[in-house]
Amino acid sequence: MKVLVLHSDVPPDAPPEDQDTLIAAEAVEAALQSRGHEAVQAPFRPDAKALGKMLGRERPDVVFNLVESVFGAGIYSSLAPAMLARLGVCFTGGTAAHFCATTDKVFAKTILRAAGLPTPDWSAPPAWAALAEDRAYIVKSADEDSSIGLDDKCVVKGTEAPARAEDSMKRFGGRWFAESFVEGREFNISLLQEKDGPRVLPIAEMTFEDWPADKPRIVGYRAKWAEGSFDSVKTVRRFGVESEEPRLAAALTDLCRKTWALFDLVGYVRIDFRVTDAGEPLILEINPNPGIAPDAGLAAAAERASLSYAELIEKIVQAALP
Fold first, then answer.
1. Are residues 69 and 206 in the same domain?
2. Using CA atoms, how far apart are residues 70 and 73, in angstroms rounded to an integer?
3. Domain check: are 249 and 126 in the same one?
4. Do 231 and 274 lie in a common domain?
5. Domain identity same for 210 and 247
6. Which of 136, 2, 121 is nearest to 62 (CA)?
7. Looking at the structure, do residues 85 and 210 belong to the same domain, yes or no?
8. 213, 269: one domain
9. 211 contacts 143 by C-beta, under 8 angstroms
């Protein structure tokens, strides 16, 4: 089978979160070749004529979609699957509709809340409705991933949230909102499409080792992208909640399956949670086509499930086939 690994068009001076796409593309290509497939890479450019010509030239059986940003912004990530679908091409992972519904985090939270699924309270401009002055909020991008703008000062009181959002918009662009900050545990859970429905991979908890008391416990930008930094070294992924806390694991798994069904998800997905001190899981974000580099959470969860990296990539390809 011939697979075209389509990735973001990343310039040489791009930040590390964008360069990570190229690392993933190299790894996916190598994994596919190790499974006996013919695999080639190409950058995605939002030009329908040029894309059609490239696909006509390469004639892939399936496109492995690794396009995380277009025009340097994640909000446009739906363009790649939209254009591939328009051209009648088989591709891995989420559709344009999945990206549109989940990349807009405020919209995704609105859908979750309407369906009765738990998610932290939030407030967004311009009205900033229901913003509680004394409550702690995390101010985050409404339409970008990769923990953009999440630093030690992103957790603020409600009175400070609009100013923080305005400042973040000026620095990074896009839309920003305030989500009620949950002082609790954080879990990242990967799901993988299989014939009988989504497979919930081993649950990963993000722990904060030797963390200063005055530092917010978040997986911020430095934790993800500043290799060797305190935040990166001390933010540690741990597995084992299924055996140690089966009731919590069951609750998280149930919410994962309900979220998958609600958004009619496909391919592979990561759902992020906070769990309150009282043990209540709250859904933070839904991430179609999450990072798939060998050191990413999806690969770690797959390894915990006794799936090699090449087997993981093979399963994602097979799930895309009619």
1. no
2. 5
3. no
4. yes
5. yes
6. 2
7. no
8. yes
9. no
User: Is the same domain home to 150 and 210?
Assistant: no
* pTM greater than 0.90: yes
Q: How confident is the model at residue 52 (pLDDT cuts 50, 70, 90)?
A: very high
17, pLDDT greater than 90 = no
The average pLDDT across 59-65 equals: 98
Say whether 133 sits in a helix, a strand or coil. coil
Query: pLDDT band at residue 142, thresholds of 50, 70 and 90?
Result: very high
CATH number at residue 54: 3.40.50.20
Integer CA distances (angstroms), 183 to 50, 59, 100, 258, 280, in order: 48, 50, 29, 24, 12
Band of pLDDT at residue 268, cut at 50, 70 and 90: very high
pLDDT band at 186 (very low <50, low <70, confident <90, very high): very high
Q: Per the structure block, which two tokens stand in for 185?
A: 């545990």
The pair of structure tokens assigned to 251 is 């609750």
Instruction: Count structural domains, the chain.
Output: 3
> The domain containing residue 171 runs over which residues?
122-180
Alpha helices, DSSP H, located in the chain: 16-34, 48-58, 79-86, 96-103, 105-114, 161-172, 221-225, 230-234, 241-244, 246-263, 297-304, 309-320
